[in-house]
From TrEMBL:
UniProt key word Transmembrane: yes
GO terms for cellular component: plasma membrane
Organism phylogeny: Bacteria, Bacillati, Actinomycetota, Actinomycetes, Micromonosporales
Protein name, per record: Signal transduction histidine-protein kinase/phosphatase MprB
Catalytic reaction annotation: ATP + protein L-histidine = ADP + protein N-phospho-L-histidine
EC number: 2.7.13.3
PANTHER family linked to this entry: SENSOR PROTEIN CREC
Keywords carried by this UniProt record: ATP-binding, Cell membrane, Hydrolase, Kinase, Magnesium, Manganese, Membrane, Nucleotide-binding, Phosphoprotein, Protein phosphatase, Stress response, Transferase, Transmembrane, Transmembrane helix, Two-component regulatory system, Virulence
Compartment(s) where it occurs, according to its Swiss-Prot or TrEMBL record: Cell membrane
Region entry Disordered, spans: 369-388
Needed co-factor(s): Mg(2+); Mn(2+)
Molecular function GO terms recorded: ATP binding; phosphoprotein phosphatase activity; phosphorelay sensor kinase activity
Domain Histidine kinase: 228-427
Length: 428
């Protein structure tokens, strides 16, 4: 923006200089030529009385003195053909002057020929001729033009300096607004812009601050709402635990009790995350043993797989297998992938869970099944083609990104779907 303002000022100043200085330069040239012509005319007219009444020797002496003093050639043509002073042949202008007309004519080299007709001599009209060379007509013009050029350059530099200061005053608050917007985009919601600059920029700064405050209020309300909803789940969980305690089959009661405890732990984690002063949807950075976490979640889901007639193939690398993710977040991601298998494939569909050590550190977790597959397209939060909430794959994707990795979707040759989480190693 500073460059564009400087270019605008330079263009405006240049046009202004052209509009004013070029005519002024032409005027100075004409004034210099007219001044030289007037001076030469006045010198020639000073000897009119002598030429009109004196004899030839006196006229010759007077003409020679004038030529010496003025520094230009002076010639007097008498009516009898006598030429006094600078010996030149008669010109069309002098012949016209012999008819009684005084005039000024241009010469071939750009100078001016001044002719004055003098009446009163007995033999007829005499003609005084003097010549103003082109150099004398333009004397001092080049120096004046140089002064104008220097003045134009000074004015242009002064205009650019003023434009730069003005542009800096305009750009500085805009750059500050840009920095604040980037900080807000980076989840630094306490960032605020300092209103400065023109009224329009100050208004934008106030609007940005209001927007940031409104975002904070909305996020705070959303976190509280999520926490409240999660807290309400504890009531049915308590009832489920009481029902499990009243069951006669102790093994079945223990299994349901463990499931209820797992759900309550997840609810508690949601409440803590919702009330934490972190950005919405953020995954906590940390470290855990991926082998232990994945083995635990596979064991949990294997019971349901047995009830629905699904074959489970497990390939888990021996631990410890550290990754840059907390155990709760990795468990949530694994549950999301395994839960998708049960939610979107018919009973009896086999699936495979593979956890391998990555060559550069970290691990890769792959959950593959032989169901109908996943519709093509990017993973978007809240978008699902199977009638679910559409949050499972997004939870897994965000967990992979938090661990410095990514989520890949593939369609194996044998059909179905294969979802792979690339998890990076713990950060040093």
């Amino acid at each position: 923006m500073r460059g564009r303002l400087a270019l605008l000022v330079a263009a405006t100043t240049g046009l202004t200089m052209i509009a004013f200085l070029v005519p002024l330069a032409m005027l100075l040239r004409d004034v210099a030529a007219d001044r030289a012509t007037v001076t030469a005319t006045a010198d020639a007219q000073a000897i009119v009385s002598v030429v009109g009444a004196a004899d030839a020797p006196t006229v010759r002496l007077t003409v020679d003195r004038l030529a010496l003093a003025a520094g230009r050639p002076v010639t007097v043509f008498l009516a009898d053909g006598t030429v006094l002073g600078d010996p030149v042949a008669p010109t069309p202008a002098t012949r016209l002057g012999a008819t009684g007309r005084s005039l000024t004519a241009r010469t071939a080299d750009g100078g001016r020929e001044i002719v004055i007709a003098v009446q009163g001599r007995a033999e007829g009209t005499a003609v005084i001729r003097t010549l103003v060379p082109a150099a004398e007509l333009h004397r001092g013009v080049l120096r004046s033009w140089l002064l104008l050029a220097v003045l134009a350059a000074v004015l242009a530099l002064l205009g650019l300096a003023v434009a730069d200061r003005l542009a800096r005053a305009l750009v500085r608050p805009i750059v500050a607004l840009s920095e604040v917007s980037h900080r807000l985009a980076g989840a630094e919601l306490t960032a605020r812009a300092q209103p400065a600059g023109p009224p329009e920029v100050r208004e934008v700064a106030g609007a940005l601050n209001h927007l940031a405050g409104r975002i904070q209020e909305l996020l705070r309300a959303e976190r509280e709402h999520v926490a409240d909803l999660s807290h309400r789940l504890r009531t049915p969980l308590t009832a489920l635990r009481l029902e499990a305690e009243s069951m006669r089959d102790r093994d079945e009661a223990a299994r349901i009790q463990a499931a209820a405890d797992g759900v309550e732990s997840a609810v508690t984690a949601v409440i803590r995350a919702a009330r934490a002063a972190t950005s919405a949807g953020a995954v906590t950075a940390g470290e855990c043993d991926a082998a232990a976490v994945v083995a635990d979640r596979v064991e949990f889901w294997s019971v349901l797989a047995e009830d629905t007639g699904r074959g489970v193939t497990t390939e888990i690398a021996p631990g410890p297998l550290p990754v840059a993710l907390t155990a709760d977040d990795l468990a949530a991601a694994a549950d999301a992938l395994l839960g998708n298998v049960f939610a979107h494939t018919p009973d009896g569909t086999p699936f495979t869970v593979r956890l391998r050590r990555a060559p550069a550190g970290g691990a890769t977790l792959t959950v593959a099944d032989r169901g109908p597959g996943i519709p093509a397209g990017p993973v978007r939060r809240g978008a699902s083609g199977g009638g679910s909430t559409g949050l499972g794959l997004d939870i897994a994707r965000r967990a992979a990104q938090a661990a410095g990795g990514r989520l890949d979707l593939a369609a194996p040759d044998h059909g179905g779907a294969a979802i792979t989480l690339h998890l990076g190693p713990p950060r040093a």
